[in-house]
Amino acid sequence: MDLNNTQCPSCNQSALTTRIDQYDNKQIYIDAITCNNCGKNYDLIWGVPYLGIFKQEEILSLFEIAANAAQYQVKEKNADHNYLNVISMVNEYTNSCNKVAVLSKYGLTNIPYWLEYRYNEHLFFKTLTQAIDLRNKCVLDIGAGSGYDSLKFYSAGATVTCLEFSPALSAFGNAEYPQLRWFGGSSDNLPFADCQFDIVTANAALHHLVDIPKSLQESLRVLKPGGYLITLGDSFMADSSTEEEEALIFNHHTSVLQGINEQVPKFQLFTEIFKYYKDALDIRVFTQNLYGLMPYHSEWSFEEAITKFPQLAGSINFLIQKKQHISIPQSSLSQEAIRPSEYAKDLYNPDLGIHRLIDLIADQFVNLSVTDQSYPKFRLLNGWKLPQAGENKRTVYKRARLFFSLDRLKDFLHLSLLIPYVSNYDSPTITIKLNSINVFSEELVRGVWHELYIPMLVEVHTHKNFLVEVQLQSHNSSEAAQEFYIRDLEFLPEASPSNLFALEHFGLETLIFTHFKGKHSVTVLISPDFEHNMDVINRLRKWQLNLQLIVPSWQDFFYSWIPECEIVETYPNFISDPTSIDNYHIQKPIQLVAASNSELKAVLQKIISVDLDQVYWIQSGGYSQLLASHTASITDGNLTEATAPLPIQQFSLSSTNQYSTHSKQLEQKVSYLEKQLQDAREEIAAMKTSKFWQLRGRWFRLKQMIGINHHK
After folding, report:
1. Which of 577, 535, 532, 569 has the alpha carbon at shortest distance from 552?
2. Distance (Å, whole) CA 292 – CA 308
3. What is the dihedral of CA 204, 205, 210, 212, to 10 degrees?
4. Do 191 and 7 contact (CB within 8 A), yes or no?
5. What share of the chain has pLDDT > 70, as a percent?
6. Tell me, what's the pLDDT at 180?
7. Which site among 20, 179, 600, 622 is 20 to 30 Å from 123 CA-CA?
8. CA 401 – CA 466 distance, rounded (Å)
9. Cα–Cα–Cα angle for 412, 418, 420, nearest 5°?
10. Are 325 and 254 in contact (CB under 8 A)?
11. 402 pairs with which residues across the strands?
């Protein structure tokens, strides 16, 4: 264990020694390192010395680590994480005129999704380091992650020390790249003595830090005179920006909604320390994007930057040389919220990892209601999108967390929840956890407001707070399919269930499981749009419904051959003669109107004589609404213009679970039949290509020719 040039973060003395001679990189050793000056002990976590503590203000970052740690669990050497190979490829790709040949050399036929980002990042790295000889330099990489950027310096001949806040990432990096020296700790209290490194770097790391000014000050402290501080890939916003404006940036950022604590810091946070020490620094500023200033160039003097950038937004990079020694004060460790080893031991189990943090949540984040608009960034990190004005519900992406004080716990959890309809319909599962323990898991129908009353039969093992987490699992990976709405989440002393439910943001399959439940046939008024009609018909037939069709008179032969479909009426050709339907009215009761756009819907609506409040309009993709509704069409689940929300249709529903079970059985049957059909097609294709059937075909053709000639 190499503790050279380290110092105790508690007393700031270079007096750290190890208390163990041998260790296993898969184990956690408590008090493995001690300070001979102040007696403070530190842990060895999966082979990495953790020289620091976890503070109260870092709890959100700890939630992020716990939510994503499992993907970095070290199992065995993984070729997919060969960063050196990627770095080599990006370097060759940057310098080559024949980029296709470079991709081919590395076994790639197409440009991978990540290459553009790595390519642009590499260009800036080369720009900022082109005048620096990296050979034999001592480099500190702050926020090193799993080591990708550290390896760029290592490949150029430097000796690299990596500091990473996440125990999971540092353990992963240490296992994959032991040629780098790894430490765990915080950037605002670096566990290294003064003036130890030739280069201190942070790539796309500063905007993740709790205290950017203090971290930059610490970076200058450990930098040798004549050395360089290099920061890359950080976004910034105007100094006048608010937390609400920052939250708007991340409202559709799926990584943030899953707990990745991305930030867009104010410009002043990057420059505060540099202003203070500017006489001892040579500061160069580089930008890749700037918003609010045209034209702009990529390099600026520090004076230009601090004059123009406080009103702008964009991305920023710094190349700073420390011209002389700077006397920088050091601070000691603050109060520890949780011991790193205690936090790490259950880290690869997200539920248990999060469970350890529940009592540490700050009081202002506890007992928030669903629609509470305060602390928008905290709500985003816990899955809640920003509330919409005038809405009594809130959108959630994949999972929602709410923290409550123990006095709020009652006998029943009441949850009012809706999963919006999507064209590629599935039956998603909603799972509800109380302090990581499952209390509910069930398939639910999309497009229905489900009023759930869940008995609280589990013991709560926290002392101050508890956590409710609502998770959505769907086989449909689209962003829209991973969203759901919550309008109420509260604890009640008793349940008040009702069989009356409501439809909203629903579709054809929603109607099948609710409005048409128990029916064997449905009457559908068909528009002239054949492609759309066939999609509707096939969706209905999939669920074993017999269809009575009212079709255009000039298209009846197209529908006459379809199984389980009966043409019960036709209507005149209004396309060739618009007046032909002026006095025409359909007398049969109709449940559905299949029309791909509002123009066709309006024409068909004129010939319907039944109550429109009982008829549903099926649009493209299966999205549905009452025919009587005066709203815009729906495209991909969204209203095409700003209008009132879709009308809510109420109906009686005894249990949604029976529909989802029925849905699952039918899906399995359809899948089985489709496989049989595919097998039959493959057999026919094989028969057509076999030698026997080719010869047999020739024989019949020859026989036919002989017969014809004989007749002549």
Report:
1. 569
2. 10
3. -80
4. yes
5. 86
6. 96
7. 179
8. 10
9. 165
10. no
11. 468
Q: Do the two domains 45-322 and 361-492 of this chain adopt the same fold?
A: no
Provide the pLDDT for residue 682.
65
The residue with tokens 């039959």 is 680
- Starting at the edge strand found earlier in the chain, the sheet holding 394-397 runs 394-397, 483-492, 412-418, 448-455, 500-503, 649-652
Domain 361-492 CATH class label: mainly beta
Give the pLDDT of residue 696: 58
HSE of 450 in the Cβ direction (CA atoms, 13 Å)? 24
Residue 193 and residue 195: Cα distance in Å, rounded? Answer: 7
Paired sense of beta strands 223-236 and 181-184, if any: unpaired
- Dihedral pair phi/psi, residue 693, rounded to 5°: -70, -30
Report the length, in residues, of the chain. Answer: 712
Query: pLDDT tens across 159-189, in order?
Result: 999 999 999 999 999 999 999 999 999 999 9
Please give the order of strands across the beta sheet that includes 624-626.
565-571, 546-552, 521-526, 592-594, 616-618, 624-626
pLDDT at 644 over 50: no
In 3D space, the residue among 429, 422, 465 whose CA is nearest the CA of residue 444 turns out to be 429
**Among the ranges given (233-242, 423-432, 590-599, 608-617), the one the predictor scored with the smallest mean pLDDT:** 608-617
Q: Which pair of tokens denotes residue 606?
A: 């004129």
- The closest alpha carbon to 447, from 423, 425, 476, 419, belongs to 419
Q: Does 650 or 91 have the greater pLDDT score?
A: 91
pLDDT per residue over 214-242, tens digit each? 999 999 999 999 999 999 989 999 999 99
**What's residue 686's pLDDT?**
61
- Please provide the DSSP assignment of 211-278 as one string: -HHHHHHHHHHHEEEEEEEEEEEEEEB-TT--HHHHHHHTTT-HHHHTT------BHHHHHHHHHHTG
Three-state secondary structure along 443-500? ECCCCEEEEEEEECCCCCCCCCEEEEEEEEECCCCCCHHHEEEEEEEEEECCCCCCCE
The tokens for 114 are 């990540």
Domain regions of the chain by residue span:
45-322, 361-492, 507-583, 671-711
Tell me, what amino acid is at 97? C
Q: What's the confidence (pLDDT) of residue 695?
A: 62
Stated as kind and residue range, the H or E segment containing 326 is none
290 phi and psi, to 5 degrees? -140, 135
Please report, as a single letter, which amino acid is at residue 261: N
Backbone angles phi, psi at 291, to 5 degrees: -115, 125
Spatial contact of 233 and 317, defined as CB atoms under 8 Å apart: yes
Region 445-456 average pLDDT: 94
Burial 579-607 (b: 16+ CB within 10 A, else e): eebeeeebeeebbbbbbbeeebbebbbeb
Least confident of 196-200, 490-494, 706-710: 706-710
Of 77-91, 117-131, 220-234, 542-556, where does the model show the most confidence? 220-234
Distant-in-sequence, close-in-space partners of 100: CB < 8 Å, separation ≥ 6: none
Residue-level pLDDT at 48: 96
CATH placement of domain 45-322: 3.40.50.150
pLDDT in tens, 497-527: 877 778 999 999 999 998 888 888 999 999 9
